[in-house]
Design goal:
- The complex is a heterodimer.
- By secondary structure, chain A is an all-alpha fold.
- Chain A has one domain.
- Chain A contains 13 helices and one strand; from the N terminus they run βααααααααααααα.
- The longest helix of chain A has 31 residues.
- Chain B has a single domain, classed as P-loop containing nucleotide triphosphate hydrolases (Rossmann fold).
- Chain B has a six-stranded mixed sheet with strand order 5-6-7-3-8-9, sandwiched between helices. In chain B, strands 2-1-4 form a three-stranded antiparallel sheet, covered by helices on one side.
- The longest helix of chain B has 16 residues.
- Classes of the chains: A mainly alpha, B alpha/beta.
- The interface between A and B is large, with 43 and 55 residues.
């Protein structure tokens, strides 16, 4: 057929904030069975994990207080990355029943799937900042603002990954298993349990290309060390975030129009 | 003015001799060739729908009806041709599916309602009315997994009838529920039609097509083989299905 494809079905105007909120709220409700106990547990869990880990690390690493703080920052940021990417990867598939029903911007399903990981990270952040204040190491406003900036970029990285992987998962149904292995390996590529300094400096740049690495390292620098990374380092992080998001968004743009056909 | 203009729409699906749906299969069989069979579901389908028209679509199973509806609703893309839809479309497709079984009826109404284009506030205000239309007020707080398929389908109709904007696209209307619910649907359908909504409805039911569709398309083998009054379309459809 030589005729050019031209398609412009008029979609109903979608209340994007309303739909996002409904998806986030109902996801949360399904996960915690809509009970008050479930809601309280969802909020308490990261705070309790913090208390448990900090108690254990205080015993094991009593002589190196900064190491245990670095470790806990690394673990929670990694947990966010791991949970958010795994959930986002299957988000279109798990909400496929909506895709075949109505016409709406499908990125909403990917972004809303990140909500649980965001809530957990939010609770951890508050708990950690309260802890820092309690031990007399409250970060300065600039350091806090930079940490917020890193979290925003981390969200962008995870959203970019989620956009790209969620449409690819519809074509490659074992992508989640492959990603599980990558995440396992990635835990050791990112300097979470070991300090970056134990590796020769010439290798650092390669580790920084793994997106969680700069976020974890820079967050430690501002929250634990009370210092500010260089401007060049910030440029690297912005470039990594932009590259991941742009690539993910481009893959999503290419494949999402056929998402319903691949379900 | 036409609300929908379809020109030479075509859609094919490529059916592989061996399915590869995983990274593992793609890697392990990277150098193994496989053949594809082309299944032409729609071939050069052209028609126009004027604002306020009610159009029926008939055709045997596999004739391309559902694919055509999904293309009109923007859920599938066409491979070739041109499609212009000038008003928002509210689809009711695959009835009884599309719910989150863990959520109760109210949350599912809010979820599907917002996905169909209702504002969240509007959806919240309409919950009671939607449940009343479906006759499911008593089950508002019950998870959908405990609903029968008929109850779920009634809820789907009720949401879509409330969410409808301009164009309503229906697959197998009036096929669910008891006579009381069917009567309610028919009354609501007539009301929407009288208010100037454009409606496309797929049905195998000769009575539905004759009663509600002044104009009906009959699809066969992915082509429109008849475009005319509902009663004549029923004859053409019957002739093609059971023979002259």
């Amino acid at each position: 057929m030589s005729m050019q494809v031209r398609k412009c079905p008029a979609a109903p105007r979608i209340d994007v904030p309303g739909m996002l909120w409904t998806l986030v709220r109902t996801d949360f409700k399904s996960r915690y069975h809509g009970t008050l106990g479930g809601f309280v547990w969802a909020l308490l869990k990261p705070a309790l994990m913090f208390v448990v880990l900090m108690s254990v690390f205080s015993l094991i690493f009593a002589a190196t207080p900064n190491y245990r703080l670095n470790l806990i920052v690394g673990l929670f940021l990694w947990e966010f990355f791991s949970e958010a990417t795994k959930t986002a990867l299957i988000s279109l598939h798990s909400k496929g029943f909506l895709l075949t029903k109505a016409q709406f911007p499908s990125w909403i399903l990917v972004v809303s799937s990140l909500s649980n990981a965001v809530i957990t990270l939010g609770v951890f952040t508050v708990t950690f900042l309260v802890y820092l204040a309690a031990i007399g190491r409250t970060p300065l406003a600039t350091e806090l603002a930079l940490f917020g900036f890193y979290l925003a970029l981390f969200f962008l990285i995870v959203a970019g990954f989620g956009l790209g992987s969620s449409v690819l998962f519809l074509k490659y149904r074992d992508l989640n298993q492959v990603w599980e292995v990558v995440v396992q390996a990635g835990f050791f590529i990112a300097p979470i349990i070991y300090p970056l300094d134990i590796l020769p400096e010439r290798y650092h740049i390669y580790l920084y290309l793994w997106p969680p690495t700069p976020v974890i390292q820079f967050s430690r620098t501002v929250l634990v060390d009370g210092a500010i990374p260089t401007f060049k380092a910030h440029l690297l992080l912005v470039a990594v975030a932009a590259a991941v998001f742009t690539t993910g968004a481009a893959i999503f743009r290419a494949y999402s129009p056929n998402a319903a056909e691949n379900l | 003015m036409s609300v929908i203009e379809a020109r030479q729409l075509a859609k094919s699906f490529w059916i592989p001799s061996a399915k590869r749906e995983t990274v593992r299969e793609h890697v392990l069989h990277a150098f193994r060739s496989r053949s594809f069979e082309r299944l032409d579901v729609l071939r050069s389908v052209s028609f126009e729908v004027k604002a306020g028209e009610t159009i029926g679509i008939m055709g045997r199973n596999g004739s391309g009806k559902s694919t055509l509806l999904k293309i009109l609703c923007g859920i599938y893309g066409a491979d070739a041709g041109a499609l212009v839809v000038r008003a928002p479309v509210t689809p009711i497709l695959e009835l009884g599916l599309g719910w989150n079984p863990e959520l109760d009826a109210v949350d599912n109404v809010l979820l599907i309602g917002t996905a169909m284009g209702m504002r969240l506030r509007e959806a919240r205000h309409s919950v009671d009315e939607i449940l009343a239309f479906a006759g499911l007020e008593r089950f508002a707080g019950m998870p959908l997994k405990h609903f029968s398929s008929g109850m779920a389908a009634r809820l789907a109709y009720s949401v879509a009838f409330k969410a409808v904007r301009d164009v309503l696209v229906l697959d197998e209307i009036f096929a669910v529920g008891d006579q009381e619910f069917k009567n309610k649907c028919q009354a609501r359908f007539r009301e929407l039609s009288a208010r100037g909504h454009t409606v496309l409805l797929v049905s195998h039911d000769p009575w539905v097509v004759s009663e509600f569709c002044p104009r009906t398309l009959v699809l066969d083998g992915g082509r429109i083989v008849f475009d005319g009054p509902g009663a004549d379309a029923v004859k053409e459809y019957t002739r093609r299905v059971v023979g002259p």
